[in-house]
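Mods, move this if it's the wrong board.
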Amino acid sequence: MSVIKSFAQLNIQTRNYVSAHALHPKKFTSILENVPIKPRNSWQIFFRENIQNNKGANGKIDVKLATKALSAQWKALDENQKQAYQHKFDQESKAHLDAYNDAINNATSDQIRKENELRKKYKLPLLKDPRQPKRPKNAFLFYIEHLRAINDPAIAGKDITEQVSEAAKKYKQLSPSEAKIYKDKSVAATEQYRKDCEKHT
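Not the wrong board. Structure tokens:
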């Protein structure tokens, strides 16, 4: 049992930003080609909408000077004005997420597999197939799941790092027969995962 790997599994989070390069690669046509880019934050939208107002006498934009000027303007906005950009950010974020999910869910597993081969070649983030079976939990993860279910005081009310640390101590103290309960669950889950992967392919 690896506590580090278990901790990683407990902390998997979906990325909340996908770069334009990853969404719309130049080397091939991606299944994400129609997915709009998600802005990083409301400030980026403000910058995008106002950058053209900062051209110099030569008609060109000095990005460094424009950024400094727009930053000052942004800080001078009141909360209601900033909230308007936050609203635009929320709308664009939702549009991005909805389009991304539609593109992934409407693509076949074979399309995703073939695109991931190209993404590996060009060192781009891989796409996750929603139909791909989830990897099975190991014995420790089944154990910590049990502790949470019974609201064990050793982990109750603690953050993820503390939960893993305290659960690891308790797990090491289990008798062979007690540990076998969770190891058997892991073995069964692994076998089911193998079967699901065979069906998936």
